[in-house]
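queue> pop job 88
queue> type: inverse folding (structure -> sequence)
queue> payload:
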């Protein structure tokens, strides 16, 4: 009952094993990279219908808890009905954020969204393929808001396409991951007309955005979207951030 109908899947034609690998991948990532514990408070940005958090069902025990939010109403409704109703410490919320591709009727700008949580509420935050769809002003706000809701020393894991690893047209695992349109310093997109469709950042630009938000890049694990390195983990590049205690969050 925790598996949604295929019309709610990100890839409706994916085999079932592909669906389940998301949950166990992210449970492992969060445990190994972000010190996830059964008592951790966890935030997921862009949770969809809960596909990456199913591995946390049965792991998190109160006071451990999970909060996820997304812009996709049918997916959130499924998660509330099938997951949250059975596990009240695992909660899902809808945020009506504008996105030209996924929520063109959204009333709130990603550049001004305030996450619907109190400051210093979470030990761990993560997002799978969210920052790959955020233009710089939106990414800067999401990083600031993440820092605000993280406790001092908290960790977050976000996936990116890092331009430092891009070697030009024909070198990526698929045509969608070609970033030939520079939109500003250290930021490029696949589609100049719809930059939020797929977007990439240089590590230097990302580190500056993070530092301005009160976060420090601790580690980068290369993904297999490009074959420029031997070490691979997720399809996208995984970036671990730590809440910088010396910085004051807004």
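queue> result:
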């Amino acid at each position: 009952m925790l598996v949604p109908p295929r019309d709610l899947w990100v890839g409706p034609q994916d085999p079932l094993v592909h669906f389940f690998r998301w949950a166990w991948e992210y449970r492992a990532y969060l445990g190994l990279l972000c010190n996830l514990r059964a008592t951790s408070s966890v935030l997921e940005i862009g949770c969809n219908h809960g596909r990456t958090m199913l591995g946390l069902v049965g792991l998190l025990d109160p006071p451990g808890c999970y909060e996820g939010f997304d812009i996709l109403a049918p997916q959130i409704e499924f998660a509330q009905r099938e997951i949250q109703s059975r596990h009240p410490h695992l909660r899902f919320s809808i945020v009506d954020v504008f996105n030209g591709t996924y929520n063109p009727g959204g009333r709130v700008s990603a550049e001004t969204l305030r996450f619907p949580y109190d400051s210093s509420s979470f030990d761990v935050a993560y997002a799978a393929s969210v920052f790959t769809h955020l233009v710089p002003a939106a990414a800067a706000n999401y990083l600031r808001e993440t820092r605000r809701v993280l406790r001092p020393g908290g960790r977050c894991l976000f996936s990116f396409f890092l331009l430092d690893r891009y070697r030009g047209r024909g070198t990526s695992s698929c045509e969608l991951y070609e970033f030939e349109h520079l939109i500003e310093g250290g930021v490029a997109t696949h589609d100049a007309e719809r930059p939020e469709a797929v977007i990439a950042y240089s590590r230097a630009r990302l580190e500056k955005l993070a530092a301005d938000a009160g976060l420090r890049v601790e580690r980068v694990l290369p993904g297999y979207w490009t074959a420029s390195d031997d070490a691979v983990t997720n399809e996208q590049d995984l970036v671990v951030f730590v809440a910088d205690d010396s910085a004051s969050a807004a």
